[in-house]
Specification:
The complex is a heterodimer. Chain A is mainly α. Chain A has one domain: MetI-like (MetI-like fold), CATH 1.10.3720. Chain A contains twelve helices and no strands. In chain A, helix 6 packs antiparallel against helix 9 and helix 9 packs antiparallel against helix 12. By secondary structure, chain B is mainly α. Chain B has one domain: MetI-like (MetI-like fold, Orthogonal Bundle). In chain B, helix 2 packs across helix 14, helix 8 packs antiparallel against helix 11 and helix 9 packs antiparallel against helix 10. Classes of the chains: A mainly alpha, B mainly alpha. Chains A and B meet through helix 1, helix 3, helix 4, helix 5 and helix 6 of A and helix 2, helix 5, helix 6, helix 7 and helix 8 of B.
């Protein structure tokens, strides 16, 4: 038997170990760098006026994004109200009725397709449906586009979470004579509650940082929103417009808005994570 | 089927309503996807009829002369995605390796969470950081270095402006890295311990066990992760729009400004007042959708084939 030389193999092994530790450091380094820059530049822009005032005209110092904060909240809430129930019900269908049906497989495939559609294409679609026919941008079009982005995410998490609920639970409730809807809402949902809340929080976190679909739907506005049928100010499009402008004051406000969006998104994510680990115990 | 009929008969009305409601919601997802395809096709009619296949083959994008060709956008999308994949896929493999095989559990959890948080950072934040912090850094340090060492290649020639194809590709790589490495981590940790221990038992080093056992065992899952990253990188909009430079020219140099399909849409859509201009932009969107759809179908069929081959065990 030939003794293979171990030294080169061990060197390669060590090299890979060093490389992979280094790669992990790279990942953390960039996260730290981005967080640091946003906090540093963003906190310089944030003051009382930032939260309470309307945007200032170009070139004039000061001004705030009160209307955009309000608009982002409204759009996100409406999108959640539209997207979560429909997505959750579709997930219920897949887990409770369509586990091995042809229609179920078709829906599952389309959920995958919709998950893979770039968000800007969703914006384009909603533009052609809700903006072009009426000839003006609107807050509700923005909400619909974000709801469409949520749909597949919520549907899939719901299906995954409900599938984990053991069938014995369903059977015992059905054996007591409970109708199917009651079994689903009172027994299955309750067992899958923490997972579904986590999924919903993550979906909300995802849409609250979305910009591309809002460009063609809600657009932006320097005023307080008066109705959902008008262009609506929102933080992300404000960041885009202000960052691309040549005015230093506007760029600073874009950093402030970035800090708010990032803080909100990361807070939602951490909340979801805490909920998840609490649920596991 | 008599059982089913009887079942229907004995179902309370509330259950029938419930069933219609959930099936209707599922159906709505089909309607959205179908509607999306039809709307994109319908609204790009004008451009489809005017340019036909030339749309994909011409690099001439000139709104003033009403001449539209998608080639430069398609090229930019491809190049930035390829750069992102070249950087992100190997990095993701070793990060996943680190998380599963090397790091002590506590460290693995902390690093894993940090990388997942990186995935949650919105695209526009990457854009802000990319434009105001990373692009100047590229211009001052990375691009001059590349020009000095690899400047004989046409890829790394030209003025170091910071923004451009290379910067966009690197930022894209950072954005897909967390997704790809998270999936790869799950794949690695699903390989049964017994199989790995058998590898260590015959004297394999960590890397040998990973390369010859873990990677082969989870190959389909790893490819799934790659497809996931690919799909994300191709359609990523805001971060790319901030740093790619938005220039409709094809250039051999990675330092030069370019554009991608998504960045062109984000930049020009609200300015497009002419019906033909608008239609050409929607057709660009249609091209992007078609590409992501094809990737999705390939991934789907691939996984199906792999499952069949492995006897449904995976």
């Amino acid at each position: 038997m030939i003794e293979r030389n171990a030294a080169p193999r061990k060197i390669v092994d060590l090299l890979v170990k060093v490389l992979s530790s280094f790669a992990a450091v790279i990942g953390i380094f960039f996260l730290g760098w981005i967080l640091l820059v946003v906090v540093q530049k963003g906190s310089a822009a944030i003051n009382w006026e930032f939260f309470t005032a309307l945007p200032a005209p170009p070139g004039i110092e000061g001004g705030g994004v009160a209307n955009a904060i309000f608009g982002t909240l409204i759009i996100t809430i409406i999108a959640t109200v539209l997207g979560v129930p429909i997505g959750a019900l579709a997930g219920v269908y897949l887990s409770e009725f369509g586990r091995s049906t042809r229609f179920g497989a078709l829906v599952r495939f389309n959920i995958n397709v919709l998950m893979g559609v770039p968000s800007i294409i969703v914006g384009l679609f909603v533009y052609t449906m809700l903006v072009k026919p009426v000839q003006h941008f609107s807050g509700y079009a923005g909400a619909v586009s974000l709801a469409i982005i949520m749909l597949p995410v919520v549907a899939r998490t719901t299906e995954d979470m409900l599938t984990l609920v053991p069938n014995a639970l369903r059977e015992s409730a059905l054996a007591l004579g409970a109708p199917r809807w009651k079994v689903t809402l009172n027994v299955v949902f309750r067992a899958a509650k923490s997972g579904m809340i986590t999924g919903t929080l993550l979906a909300v976190a995802r849409i609250s940082g979305e910009t591309a679909p809002l460009l063609f739907t809600a657009l932006n506005s320097p005023f307080w929103p008066e109705s959902l049928a008008q262009p609506m100010a929102n933080l992300t499009v404000t960041i885009f417009n202000y960052a691309m402008s040549p005015f230093a004051g506007w760029q600073q406000i874009a950093w402030g808005a970035s800090l708010i969006i990032m803080a909100a998104v990361l807070a939602l994510n951490l909340l979801a994570r805490v909920g998840m680990s609490g649920g596991r115990k | 089927m008599s059982e089913k009929a009887q079942n229907n008969h004995s179902q309370p009305w509330s259950d029938r309503v419930f069933r219609v409601l959930v099936a209707g919601s599922a159906f709505l997802i089909l309607v959205v996807v179908l509607g999306l395809v039809l709307e994109l096709i319908r609204n790009s009619q004008l451009s489809l009829a005017r340019f036909g296949w030339r749309f994909l083959l011409s690099a001439d994008w000139n709104p003033v002369a009403e001449s539209y060709g998608a080639l430069s956008s398609v090229y930019g999308t491809l190049v930035s995605t390829v750069i992102a994949m070249i950087l992100a896929v190997p990095l993701s493999v070793v990060i996943a390796l680190f998380l599963v095989e090397l790091a002590p559990p506590l460290l693995s959890k902390i690093v894993g969470n940090a990388i997942e948080l990186l995935a949650a950072v919105p695209s526009i934040i990457f854009g802000m950081w990319g434009l105001f912090v990373f692009a100047p850094f590229m211009a001052d340090h990375v691009q001059p270095l590349l020009a000095d060492t690899l400047g004989f290649l046409p890829l790394f020639q030209g003025p170091p402006m910071g923004i451009g194809m290379l910067t966009a590709g690197i930022i894209l790589a950072l954005m897909i890295l967390p997704f790809v490495s998270a999936v790869m981590r799950d794949v690695f940790s699903m390989v049964p311990e017994v199989v790995k221990e058998a590898g260590y038992g015959v004297g394999g080093t960590t890397w040998e066990v990973t390369r010859k056992i873990t990677v082969r065992y989870g190959l389909s899952g790893l490819l799934g992760a790659v497809f996931l990253g690919l799909g994300r990188a191709i359609g990523e909009t805001m971060a790319v729009t901030f740093v790619i430079g938005n220039n409709h020219e094809i250039s051999a140099s990675l330092f030069s400004a370019g554009n991608s399909i998504a960045s062109t849409l984000a930049n020009e859509f609200t300015e497009a007042s002419e019906p033909l201009y608008m239609s050409a932009l929607v057709e660009l969107g249609l091209v992007l959708f078609a590409v992501t759809f094809i990737i999705q179908v390939i991934a789907h069929l691939w996984l199906k084939r792999v499952r069949k081959q492995s006897g449904g065990g995976l």
